[in-house]
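Any chance you'd type out a single protein's sequence alongside its tokenized fold?
>
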Amino acid sequence: MSNLATVIAIVPRLPPAIDGVGDYALNLARQLRKDFNIQTHFIVGNSTWQGAAEIEGFTISQITDNSANILVNVLSNYHSSSPVLLHYVGYGYAKRGCPVWLVDGLQRWKGLYPKSNLVTMFHEISASGPPWTSAFWLSSLQKDLAAQLTKLSDRCITSKQLYANIITEISQGKHNQVAFLPVFSNIGEPDQLPSDLSERQQRLVIFGGVANRARVYNQSQRILDYVCQRLNIQEICDIGTPTGITPSFIGKVPILEIGEQPANKVSDILANSIAGFSDYNPDFLAKSTIFAAYCAYRLLPINAKGSVAIIDGIEAGKHYWVPDINRNDLGDQFNWQTIADNSFDWYQKHNLSRQSSIFVSYLLHGDLN
């Protein structure tokens, strides 16, 4: 039990908006309340968000105009001993990914309350893209804002080792040890699962946002067909906002397109399926809540692409299967149960309960000085 009463969490958006960072923040708030009796008050920083004044017993304030003054005023309503947890992703707080108002407001607040404790979870550092996109030209400003944030923050956390290294560099010596915590499942973590995949339905799940699932159908149908044949898949379950291009079959295997579903329904489906498929940049799997869900539910995670390096503790062939349609790679050496077990064990090292403990230690950091 903690004597810390309230955390002020700044987020871009919360449900009912579909927002991965908002889901992450809400799941973390639930766990902080469950494990440590810590209450969270949310400040929604996206002025276009539409939602209620509270969610699941957590109160919500909203920045109705992207103004540093308004942010300072809202933060000043709370006792300066209440730590602030910023969930940072530039595009969440400004259209072009450069929330100058947010950084300016936090700087002013820190000037007024120098002993206050600011912990920043960097979900992103800066965007990048081709030279004809605004992200390319604005990435310098985005990095400058991120650097300012690292210097304002008492502690920093992020989801990738690469990001942790960047934070160490741009903070110019302030943060020499930055925790990196791969994201947790936004669909919860099951209390019990069948001990063996053979006890589950021969079902494969394709889950996530429209863009990620559309990429599977646009680029990976041959691989998916190969997977279905090799694993004797009887049904593919497509979960999420309809893509508009989802086929009815992959080979002879029917696709059941069930649309958006509540978390408890998705949880039931994952717990009784054998595999989860994605076509994701393998260097960024630690940031994928979908990959996290596949691992948490002890499915066989399958990704259309693999990385030759071990990144964030994730190794192709050990923690996920990368099918090779040019050869039968389900010989004697292939054990899907072992890969499922390895991915599950990797996930448990940073599951939601463990992460909440780390966040609490950082949020309490100011009280320990």
